[in-house]
Amino acid sequence: MSDKVLLVDDEAHITRNLEKVIPWEMLGLQVAGSAKNGVEALQLLEQQSVQLLLCDIRMPVMDGLELVRLIREREMTCDIIMLSGYQDFAYTRAAIQYGVNDYVLKPIPYDELTGVIARVMSNQRSKAKQQHEEQQKLGRMIDLASEKILYDLIMDYTDFSGSHWLFSGDEQQLRTQRFVMIVLDLDVSSEKTKDWRDWADKERKLWNFAVCNVLREKLQGNGLHHAVIQMRDGEWCVLIETAGAAEFEEQPVKEWADMLMTAVRNHVKLSLNAGIYRRFAGVEELSAAYKQVQLGMQLTPAHDTITLYPTDGERGPAEDKAFWVTAEKLISAVKRGDTSAVNVEVDQIASQLQHLNDQHSARVKPLLHFFVLHLMREMKEMAVFTREQEEQLWRRLDRRFLIKDLLTFIRQVTAAVTDRSIDKKKQSELSMLEARAFLNRNLCRDLSVEEAATHVGLSTSYFSLLFKQTFGETFIEYVTRERMERAKTMLAETGKSVAQIAKEVGYAERRYFTKVFMKYTGDNPSDFRAKFQVEDDTIH
Questions:
Q1: Mean pLDDT, rounded, of the chain
Q2: Torsion of Cα atoms, 372 then 375 then 381 then 384, to 10°
Q3: In degrees rounded to 5, what are phi and psi of residue 95?
Q4: Global pTM?
Q5: Distances from the Cα of 247 to the Cαs of 24, 26, 121, 178, 277, in angstroms?
Q6: Does residue 310 have a cis peptide bond before it, meaning omega lies within 30 degrees of 0?
Q7: Of 44, 156, 356, 535, which is most buried with the most CB atoms under 10 A?
């Protein structure tokens, strides 16, 4: 597709010669029209997009300088080459002030003009390409930032509040968005995935990374604006944005889930199950929706490959749900290293299992089995077992032994974790101190929670939990706040430009930095700096 050029001169033979003599096609241009004065030219510019303007200076009704002034005032984006028979420097100076790209004297040397046009358009296209690349980079940066925020919202580590300084600029749009939620989960109990359990941690991380890439590429290829968030080893939450007035339709959503599962199966050679939240979810609902889908997938081990939650018919006995609430409390206590709470919840589980066994004995074994699988995955995220211990536990679990054995297994697992809780707590504190030092050293570049977690040897999900518990704020809240505080100091104490400061605190794009800074401080960077300059003048 060619760019367009508009020819403006009150001498018709000049515009005819320009149209015929200049090799427009070779220059990647086509003549969009011609005008006899500035008024006609403005009318044409308002009707169509033009990338280049060749314009005489002296014309009736409206001259070239006035035309250029109005073009710049109205922020019409086109490059301008002025043509004139007058060698008066005042015209040249005025043209330069209005942002004219070049100036060619009449009589027109067509070979020279062709070279000027080629140079101007080459610069224009290079700038356009650079801007497009920067916009794409910015768009992806915003998507990644949103994914980090969405993870924290899903895990209930932060709340979405209009007054929260973190939600600035594009992130603020999350408030109005509604999402389709699809939870994709690897069935770790199936025969197909036993090989996966034998993979080394490095290989497993690469596999998780590959699945994320496959999911993102498939969604992007289908034009779906999305976030793909790895919740833990072998589990992802896919959020797909929807139009504001759209109605939730099950069939298209199931087709999306099937498309994603097929792509993973074809490219990574592993099968997933999908749980779909039955309606759209706003940001305030994400945590509850995720828990409901995850709980549904765990409470109904015989579910279809793709299932919507809550299910249509049987919503699950109240006893099952009560058991799972206790199970989640137990896992939370284990993560905290709270031995007394662990013992209380294990006793509670034993009591609930006895009650369940008296009424629904057939439901107890699969329910408990899936809970132990869930416990094993959570413990793996915390890296509490050696490779040999993990393999031994998986082998015991594969035998599907009796309820009493499974209950003993739970006690042994939780006891092993809590026995190490003191040492683990000390190690966790050291890991978080190292993580903070790592972040402070690297605030000048793009940082991901995955990179920080890998640096201290933890899984992303466990790192996020420990970080929140240790510092009282999420990873992205901490990083953004530290960057803003560093920027405030640099604005107040140095003469560096805003763009330079933005880069030095990790923002490649000044506009995005300015949005975050304004939300954090209430001032744009220039006004913030001006306040300190006024204070300095007052002191002196």
A1: 79
A2: -90
A3: -60, -40
A4: 0.58
A5: 50, 50, 47, 11, 14
A6: yes
A7: 356
